[in-house]
Write a structure and sequence with these properties.
The protein is α+β, with helices and mostly antiparallel strands. The protein has 2 helices and 10 strands. The chain folds into 2 domains: 45 residues; 104 residues, Rieske Iron-sulfur Protein, CATH 2.102.10. The structure holds FE2/S2 (inorganic) cluster.
Length: 157
């Protein structure tokens, strides 16, 4: 084997290595971009939208006019269901200011947050305290009253 044969053999090995490196890079990019595209499509697909569920939340007669009670959702969320006298409303018990627990004050027909004296009207709109200054309101849930029962609609997450 003379020097020109050795040069050609070295050149072929270098070409094969280059081809393998290029193929590895293309395969790596395909896997990376494919994975990113898969998760992007999965996130954006209609099936990914937040699911809602409807749950029995107690009897209509369990909450007298002006009264309220706390319902615990299957995922642990607490919902204050109130009979305002004009119908039932359901709000998260989490104050939008800094997350303290709000409660219904029947005599004043308001929700009160004890942490910073936040007050919300019967429709969950802040009317006093830091939440009012920030224009906040309680998170609301749909509630339906039949002759006998209350059903609440909750959104996943
Ligand atoms: S946490 Fe409710 S008013 Fe501040």
């Amino acid at each position: 084997m003379d020097s020109s044969d050795r040069d050609r053999a070295a050149e072929r090995r270098a070409t094969r290595r280059g081809l393998l490196a290029w193929g590895g890079m293309v395969l790596g990019m395909a896997v990376s971009y494919g994975t990113a595209a898969f998760f992007a499509l999965r996130y954006l697909s209609p099936g990914r939208r937040a699911r809602t569920w409807r749950a029995y939340a107690g009897g209509v007669r369990d909450i007298p006019r002006g009264g309220s009670r706390t319902y615990t959702a299957p995922d642990g969320r607490k919902v204050v269901i109130t009979n305002t006298g004009e119908g039932f409303v359901a709000f998260s018990d989490v104050c939008p200011h800094l997350g303290c627990k709000v409660h219904w004050e029947a005599a004043r027909r308001e929700f009160h947050c004890p942490c910073h004296d936040g007050v919300f009207d019967a429709q969950g709109v802040a009317i006093s305290g830091p939440p009012a200054k920030a224009g906040q309101r309680l998170a609301r849930y749909a509630i339906e009253a039949t002759d006998e029962a209350l059903y609440i609609t909750l959104m996943e997450g």
